[in-house]
Amino acid sequence: MDLVKRAWWAFRSLIFYCGFVAIVAIMSTIACLLFFLPFRPRQRIATFGNHLVMLWLALTCDIRITVSGRENIPEGPCVILSNHQSTWETFYLQWFFQPASVILKRGLMWVPLFGWGLALMQPIAIKRSQPAKAIRYVLKQGMRRIAGGNRIVIYPEGTRVSPEQLGVFKTSGAALAKSAGVAILPVAHNAGEYWARDSFIKRPGTIHLHIGPAIDSQCGDPRQLTEQAKDWIQRAL
Fold it and tell me: Could you give all domains of the chain from N- to C-terminal order, each with its CATH number?
């Protein structure tokens, strides 16, 4: 029975990926063609594709999403610190928290169509091979994005981690929030249980996204603030 179930999940996952590639290709092309639009309408149009991916995920793989803590989201810019388990959050959080700039690997910008469209979303693209330079770049570009009214989405673990654990949290996000004088918003989710980082197969179920109370970035140093956000994420999981 388990073999039959996994075969069915694999088939549904294959159907999902066919639609996923098509949606990403189409919406990336549209984003590139609309390069002349101001950032906010351009991002709303482009990230509608992210929303379509979530609808397609629910239809093909029966993966649903629930969100709690919406009332905790500040009106203006903030720095969002989220755990990193899956590809799911890279699509969903950019759409959900818009206007948003996401910190990501610079190499993604070179992917034809997808990377070009991504570059128009005002990301903060860093080189992981140069951590000290990357931190300075995050602070510099992050301040500009926040001044422009954007929220900043950061995955302080730096890489995807299995659902059973949290990785080491880097302090650049808290340092940026403190420098910019904006709040830190901790976010926790269990996406890795259904869209695993190292598996083709998507498992049906419900992804729970929890948004915690905003943390005043002026009440502690970056390490203390980071640990406070991590503690909340750990409890939420």
Answer: 2-236 (3.40.1130)
- Please write the tens of the pLDDT for every residue from 76-122: 999 999 999 999 999 999 999 999 999 888 888 888 888 888 889 99
Threshold 0.85, pTM exceeds: yes
Per-residue pLDDT of 14-27, as tens digits, reads 999 999 999 999 99
Say yes or no to pLDDT of 211 above 60. yes
- Letter for the amino acid at 209? L
Q: Which residue from 68, 67, 93, 65 is spatially nearest to 79, judged by alpha carbons? A: 93
Q: Count the alpha carbons within 13 Å of 151 in the hemisphere toward its beta carbon.
A: 24
Residue whose entry in the numeric block shows the structure tokens 């390490």: 223
Identify whether the C-beta of residue 202 lies closer than 8 Å to the C-beta of residue 192: no
Dihedral angle over CA of 106, 222, 228, 92, nearest 10? -20
Give 175-213 as a DSSP string. HHHHHHT--EEEEEE-GGGTB-TT-SPBPPEEEEEEEPP
Burial class of residue 151 in the structure, from the number of CB atoms within 10 Å of its CB (0-12 exposed, 13-18 middle, 19+ buried):
buried
